[in-house]
Amino acid sequence: VIEVDAAGTYTGDVAVIRADNVTVRGVGGGRPKVDAAGKAAAGKGIWVQYGAGLTVENVEFVGATCPDGNGAGIRGQGAGLTVRDCRFVGCENGILGGVGEVLIEHSVFDTCGPPRTPPAHAAYISEKC
What we know:
It contains no helices and 13 strands. By secondary structure, the chain is mostly beta strands. The mean pLDDT is 92. The strands form two sheets. Strands 1, 3, 4, 6, 7, 9, 11 and 13 form an eight-stranded parallel beta sheet that branches. A five-stranded parallel beta sheet has the order 2-5-8-10-12, with no helix packed on it.
């Protein structure tokens, strides 16, 4: 379990998560904000999941963009993804991917999938991403 302080804004703090059974949780009376600030882990998004069993709770993802137009707040490429009480703002895709089960609960997608051709998505769940 990794706890992230809600008092912070984490600018350009993109990451690849390779470990299995990781929980990342925002704590401290709010929601920590992870602002891509023009960066993308593995050229895919703010947090890119390769490990199995990732759970993300109470985190805000802002401004995921990539040159290919598919920047994701969370790019799920490992088996099993759970997202709870998160917020995705101004991302080309809030969540993209999903291998195996994907559970999204009580989360907000705000201005994700900006108008473009072809349009992106708030959440695009497919094992073929």
